[in-house]
Each structure stands twice: as C-alpha cells, then as structure tokens.
C-alpha cells in the first residue's frame, strides 16, 4: 500500500479539505505515478457537490493528471520508472465489449471505470482522483506525454483537449470546412485551436462582443455575436460543423439554422435535457444532424497529445496552489479563469 494525501469532499456541502488515504500497491499491469500537475474540470465541481446525483464520498476529484512513473508492475511493458505520463477521465473498462475492442473505452458497454468516484473493477474500492500526491493505474489507461509539451499545460488536454479533438476527427473536419465554435471556455478555446490546425475556417459564436479580440488571438477567423439577430441571420446556411461547448441549457434552434444542408451540430458541453425544444424542421428540411460526443478512447487520447506536440498546441492555464481549490471552484462558476486551472501538486505539502 502507498500512503497518499490529497484534497477531498466529505459531503456534497463540505469544502474540499486535506485527507490522508491509502493507494493500492501496483498489480502486475499497474503503473504507480507521482502526480505533478492536475487540471481542474467543471465536472469536478458537479461531482464534488453531487449535482448529477451519482457521487460517492469521500470524493477526491481530478482527471487531468500528469506525473512521473515511480514503480511498475511485473507485466508492464509500455512505461518505465521516470517516464512522464498522463491519466485522463478513465482508469479501466471491461476491455472485451464491442466498444472497447474498437478502442472506444469511453463507450464501454459495461460502463468505464472513472478516475474518481467509481468502483474499482477488481476490489470494489472507490477510485480517488488526481488532487493527490500519487495514483496507481493500469498501464492500458496511461498515456505518454510528448517531450515537446509543457507538463502543466498538457494536463487539460486529457479532458478539455480530447473532448474537442475527438468529434472534430470523428466527423471528418478537414481543410476548407467552415466550423463554428459555440462558447469559449476551457473546451471552446481548445476547439478553436484544433479546428484551425485541421485547416478549417473557424468562427466563434459568443454572447459577448468583448471576446472578439481574444477569439482571434486564439486563432478564430471570425466572430459572431449570437445575441445579434442580424449577425445570426447573415450566417444562415453557412457552416459545415458546429462544435457546441456551452455547458448550460441554451436554444439550439438559431444555431441549427446557421448550418448548411447535411451540416452537423455536435454537443460536447451539455449533459442536461435540451430546453427549449428543438424544432424538428430545423433538422428535417436540410438533413442536418444533431450529434453528441464524449471524451475519447485511450488510443485517441495519445493521438491528440501527439497532435498537440506536432502543431504546438497547448491549453491556456492559470497555475493553482491546491490550498486555494475552493476559491478556484467559486471563480470557475463565475467564469473567472482563462481557461483552465491546473494544480501544482508541489503545493500539496508546502
């Protein structure tokens, strides 16, 4: 067993606070990792506060993990002590269903084992995430961090990055396509960078005209203020793809009307009922598609890391002392971060 420390919520209403706990000794296929950096995702807040009704306490968040290998099991072949590695949103799956066989572990038909607040498939213990000094994970779910990437800015690629990269690749975004990005938070700013690197003409949809300059700095070619009826009307039938990163309920109908025939609107931010209702005519009359996408498999997560290294893409981050995690949650809810907090785990014991 490993003695570990981290920050956890004891109840849905309690702030995150230090907690000592035990990590398992590595199984034959396990990699033990000293956590160096961990990104802070909005889903961490949802789960810490049981806003999705599925939380188990104590709950230790964190699924954008970068660290150094400290020990490997006897059957491990992909990683060695000293390697810089990453762990994303999953730490296991059934490994034998149709989805897993297709390297789509996120859609495991038996359900993937999440990096935290999820029962371990072997011993039934509840997984604890990356807001901690260490983690032990099966090597299949550990990815290599390319040397060209800064370890801290690489951490959010393991969630925010793969969440936006995967649908762009799956739906075949290519050079010359017109892609609209809805929202410019942690997901949206990465979507802009990926779509641009794939050769698309990129437009940000935002409610705030003040974000225009920042959007262009991130790589957007155009900006449409979605509250401006004239701008939305002028965009009618223009786009091949919309990547929708908005995490709260919003009216999809005006955006659907900006798609050309056969255009695809991809949801990656919303996991709640769609409200107001979609007018079916916005789909039927132009053979438009409304789709969804969830993170990516392990193979594709390695692919996006390599893609980022090749194209010099990183996530814009603000480094965080873990002692300020509760304040960071409040700032995230208020939209006061550009664009992702990353915890420097050296502050855990400072």
Characteristics of this structure?
alpha/beta, Rossmann fold, 2 domains, 350 residues, Quinone Oxidoreductase, Chain A, domain 1, seven-stranded mixed beta sheet, 11 helices, six-stranded parallel beta sheet, single chain, 17 strands
Task: Describe the fold and architecture.
The chain folds into two domains: 2-159 and 296-348, Medium-chain alcohol dehydrogenases, catalytic domain (Quinone Oxidoreductase, Chain A, domain 1, Alpha-Beta Complex), CATH 3.90.180; 161-292, NAD(P)-binding Rossmann-like Domain (Rossmann fold), CATH 3.40.50.720. It is built from eleven helices and 17 strands. It has helices at residues 42-48, 98-101, 151-154, 160-170, 186-197, 212-218, 229-234, 253-256, 281-284, 298-311, 325-333, and strands spanning 2-8, 17-23, 30-40, 65-72, 84-87, 90-92, 113-114, 134-138, 143-144, 178-182, 201-206, 222-225, 239-244, 259-267, 289-292, 317-320, 340-344. Strands 3, 4, 5, 8, 9, 16 and 17 form a seven-stranded mixed β-sheet that branches. A six-stranded parallel β-sheet has the order 12-11-10-13-14-15, covered by helices on one side. Strands 1-2 form a two-stranded antiparallel ribbon. The model has no long low-confidence stretch (mean pLDDT 97).
